Amino acid sequence: MSMSDPIAAMLTRVRNSILREHKTVSLPYSKIKESIAEVLKKEGFIESFHVHPEKVGKSLEIVLRYDSEGEPIIRKIKRVSRPGLRVFKGYDEIKPVLNGQGIFIITTSKGVLSDIDCRTQKIGGEILCEVY
Predict the structure, then answer these.
(1) 67 burial class (0-12, 13-18, 19+ CB within 10 angstroms)?
(2) Letter string b/e over residues 9-48, b meaning 16 or more CB atoms within 10 A of that residue's CB
(3) Degrees to nearest 5, angle at CA 87 with 129 and 93
(4) Do residues 72 and 45 make contact, with C-beta atoms less than 8 angstroms apart?
(5) In this structure, what CATH number is given to the domain that contains residue 59?
(6) Which residues neighbour 3 within 8 Å (Cβ) at sequence distance 6 or greater?
(7) In a domain? residue 1
(8) What is the CB neighbour count within 10 angstroms for residue 79?
(9) For the segment 18-61, what is each residue's pLDDT rounded down to a tens digit?
(10) In this structure, is the dihedral angle defined by the CA atoms of residues 28, 47, 37 and 3, taken in order, positive or negative?
């Protein structure tokens, strides 16, 4: 089965794992997924992530983060730009998510960054997803 949107599949797996209160989620590896996981870790939405080399193919394992009462840190994770409708924004057009409580994950010419980093470095790009 071929995936037409692997990023949306990644976000759906994370969302479903949070709903089922799983500690980890495993998914097929790609560089863009690793970059998204890196931004999520840097911004404190996940505990960690690990790349597992296997004989058939690599996999990416994400360790989800919960607060002291067992509530997930990621309350909502949503795909913004998709294959049928790409969403590009300049750094001055990117507004904070929920007054700074969330982030946009944006792919730029300098790699995958959060909206905060994009505004700091004054670069825009394609908005991949919204997390809060």
Answers:
(1) exposed
(2) ebbebbbebbeeeeeebebebeeebebbbbbbbebebbee
(3) 90
(4) no
(5) 3.30.1490.10
(6) 9
(7) no
(8) 17
(9) 999 999 999 999 999 999 999 999 999 999 999 999 878 899 99
(10) positive
Calpha distance 39→112 (Å, rounded): 7
Q: Is residue 65 part of a domain?
A: yes
Secondary structure (3-state) at 1 = coil
Note whether residue 127 is domain-resident: yes
Q: What is the 3-state secondary structure (H, E, C) of 101-119?
A: CEEEEEEECCEEEEHHHHH
* Element counts in the chain: helices (H) and strands (E): 3, 8
Decide: pTM greater than 0.85: yes
Domain count, the chain: 1
User: Looking at the DSSP assignment, which residues form a beta bridge with residue 42?
Assistant: none
In a domain, 28, yes or no: yes
Question: Among residues of the chain, what percentage have pLDDT more than 90?
Answer: 93
Please tell me the distance from the alpha carbon of residue 87 to that of residue 106, in angstroms, as a whole number. 10
- Domain range holding 26? 6-131
